[in-house]
Design goal:
The protein is an alpha/beta fold. Helix content is 39%, strand content 16%. Strands 13-12-11-10-9-8-15 form a seven-stranded mixed β-sheet. A six-stranded mixed β-sheet has the order 5-4-3-2-1-14. Helix 1 (20-36) links the parallel strand 1 (5-12) and strand 2. The longest helix is centred in the middle third of the chain and has 25 residues, at 387-411. The two termini are 21 Å apart.
Length: 708
């Protein structure tokens, strides 16, 4: 549960229709397997204790009583499991029958959730047996005689202890230590270890109540004192498929994890709809969603059940089972991330205290553990892993960038632009976007002025690529060698040109920006900015140098994505010469080329100075998109970059990232306009309204506490 991570599972056990004892045994076995793999919320299918396809057997008292007995057996034999377990059964309540989910925890039944929407169309005949639990709001008394008597007769070695409400409160109070509640496995059994006397008096053991009460309502929110951020609610199959699912109200009243016990039969194409339904509901509610469906063990008299289990988080499918096979799937949910996203989204409204009336809290208990991060975090979160999706995303982003520039040019009636072309990735992408915008407007590419400005650090490779690129794209090429101008400037301010410090570097950057601005004035055009999101986050730009332009087309494109956009253009341009130039640019080390080359080769590599961009983009994404704290980002980065970077390297650059991010906000506070293309941006008018004088001490102090 550390950092908000919790492992969950959805499982489809083998069942025999109407054989409750067999089914319970399979559920118990699978629950222990899930627990051994670290799952703490476990979901089984609808009516799994009896089987969903019992038909008119649901009217048989024998089946109903056996289902109750086996439910208590499952509770007893999973008492040692550190988790919340949901199983389905037919439940008789006040003379009516309800299709229900039972939540089990530490040997007890924490609550019953009846199904609200009862399907009675096509192949579904639930209305023949069950009624809607919409208005149910009461308690069910768990009696030793009615519930465990039948099972105890079969296995007299199993004896269940029931705690009354007062005894449970007493146990809770005494076990609530600094480390949280920590129930021993015998707390709910008769055979108690007397070493627990510090927590349970002998007097408590003498009073063994014959019954206790369990809430029954569709409006239950299951909460955990050890993990108060987690709020779990349940709905059953058809409840999800209706226009207004109960989970809508559950989420409105605070639930951030929804479980669904289902028996959805298979039809051609239905799996796609089901997957989209689960994914979209988790996205709409900003929640985790666990969907467990009945499988091949059900009767195939008229339909077939595939056991299609799904785990989703905020629109993303974390795990999906193979259909027509029984088994379990697992996923790790980030509850803190979900809660942070809900706080960020001001339209994600929640019920007031008054509006929460009618919803009830049902407690369950978990031992505090650290969830092992078994999944592989995407080390390049800005870049889709699928080649097909990556190509689609690249085309979309290029169109967003070009459309933004097109609108700006059209609005100011401008037909000329100026762009500084260095032969590097950022200026290459900016030129490609500008060409696309001009094509959209029907303007001649000759009105694009690409300016190359060689100086002390320019290499033949980048110079040649800049010149050839502008010619291939049909832009006008202008060369302005700035060596003499910069040298004169150094003499004017009394700077030694052999002193290769920040003045030496920034003097060149500002001279280039001045030239671009003045050439734009000559033609009545505007200067197109080339700086990318990663550089802006790190403040890796010369203030009033490359930091400034009249429209920055790359301002929300991270460096890791810039490469793929240029590669996409190389792969799709249908011009072998242009493709070759773009591929060579991609193969060129990232550098501002402000220091003299060594033997004609780039001497100044950006990533040697500020760190690997794939690391910084990972840090940036999880800090701004999900507001993760530094310790959590470090923990995830170690998993994401295992085999690429060791812990020391990750921590070193993470500290540099936070230090630069906080100290360089003043540069971001006065950024030129530019289009937002993804979920992360640093525009002071849009996504990042951060004071330039904000102190990063809290974040850096957290990193200083990390011991490797």
């Amino acid at each position: 549960m550390k950092d908000g991570f919790i492992k969950v599972s959805a499982g489809t056990p083998d069942v025999r229709v109407a054989d409750c004892e067999y089914n319970a045994g399979e559920i118990i076995c699978m629950a222990h397997e899930m627990a051994e793999k670290g799952a703490m919320v476990m979901v089984f299918p609808e009516l799994c204790i009896t089987g969903y396809t019992c038909g008119d057997l649901f009217w048989q008292e024998t089946l109903l009583k056996e289902a109750k007995s086996q439910l208590l057996r499952i509770a007893a034999e999973t008492e040692d499991i550190n988790g919340l377990i949901f199983v389905g059964l037919p439940l008789e309540y006040q003379g009516k029958l309800y299709n229900s989910a039972a939540a089990l925890n530490r040997g007890k039944i924490a609550g019953f959730v009846p199904k609200v929407n009862i399907p009675n169309y096509n192949e579904f005949y639930e209305g023949r047996y069950f009624i809607s639990g919409k208005d149910v709001d009461g308690k069910i008394t768990i009696k030793r005689e009615d519930y465990c008597g039948a099972y105890a007769e079969k296995d007299p070695e199993i004896e269940i202890r029931f705690f009354g409400e007062e005894e449970l409160q007493d146990v809770d109070a005494r076990k609530n230590t600094e480390d949280g509640l920590d129930f021993e496995e015998d707390d709910f059994l008769d055979e108690l270890d007397m070493d627990d006397a510090d927590y349970i008096d002998e007097d408590d053991l003498e009073d063994d109540p014959e019954e206790y009460e369990v809430p029954v309502s569709p409006n239950l929110i299951f909460t955990c004192p050890e993990f108060p951020e987690l709020k779990v609610a349940a709905e059953i199959c058809e409840d999800l498929w209706v226009a207004a699912p109960p989970s809508n109200l559950h989420a409105y009243r605070g639930a951030n994890m929804i479980v669904n016990l289902s028996a959805s039969d298979e039809l051609a194409g239905k799996d796609t709809y089901r997957r989209n339904l689960v994914s979209s509901q988790s996205a709409r509610l900003v929640c985790g969603y666990i969907y467990a469906s009945a499988g091949p063990g059900e009767s195939t008299q008229d339909v077939v059940y595939g056991g299609h289990d799904l785990i989703a988080e905020n629109g993303t499918i974390l795990a999906e089972s193979r259909r027509f096979e029984n088994g379990a799937v697992y996923g790790i949910m980030d509850i803190h991330k979900l809660n942070n996203e809900r706080r960020r989204m001001t339209t994600c409204g929640f019920a007031s205290d008054r509006e929460r009336e009618g919803f009830r809290e049902a407690l369950f208990y978990l031992e505090k553990t650290e969830t092992k991060l078994e999944q592989k975090f995407d080390s390049r979160p800005f870049v889709p892993s699928s080649e097909t999706e990556r190509a689609r995303r690249c085309e979309e982003i290029l169109n967003i960038q070009a459309t933004g520039l097109k609108k700006r040019l059209d609005h100011i009636h401008c037909q000329n632009v100026v762009i500084g072309l260095s032969g590097g990735l950022d200026s290459t992408l900016a030129l490609l976007v500008t060409v696309r915008a001009f094509d959209m407007l029907g303007l001649s590419r000759e009105k694009i002025t690409a300016v190359t400005m060689p100086c002390f650090g320019t290499t033949d490779r980048t110079y040649s690529n800049a010149c050839e690129l502008s010619r291939c794209l049909g832009a006008e090429l202008r060369e302005v060698n700035i060596r003499e101008a910069v040298s004169l400037h150094f003499r004017d301010i009394g700077h030694d040109p052999d002193k290769h410090d920040v003045t030496y570097e920034n003097g060149q950057a500002r001279e280039r920006t001045q030239i671009l601005m003045d050439i734009a004035n000559q033609s009545g055009g505007i200067v197109i900015g080339t700086g990318d999101l990663s550089e802006l986050a790190l403040g890796w730009a010369t203030y009033n140098g490359d930091h400034m332009s009249m429209y920055g087309v790359n301002s929300s494109v991270p460096k890791t994505l810039v490469r793929h956009l240029v590669k996409y253009c190389a792969d799709t341009c249908e011009d072998k010469k242009l493709s070759g130039i773009l591929l060579d640019i991609l193969d060129t080390p990232v550098s501002p080329e402000l220091l003299p080359p060594e033997d004609g080769v780039i001497a100044q590599k950006t990533e040697d100075l500020v760190g690997p961009y794939e690391l910084h983009d990972f840090f940036l994404y999880h800090m701004l998109r999900w507001t993760c704290p530094p310790e959590k980002i470090f923990r995830m980065a170690r998993v994401a970059f295992e085999g690429e970077y060791d812990a020391e390297t990750i921590l070193k650059w993470l500290k540099i990232f936070y230090r630069r991010f906080f100290t360089q906000q003043f540069k971001r506070s006065c950024l030129p306009d530019g289009p937002k293309v993804g979920s992360v941006a640093v525009s002071p008018r849009g996504d990042l309204r951060m004071p330039s004088d904000a102190c990063g001490t809290l974040w850096l102090r957290q990193l200083d506490r990390i011991k490797i």
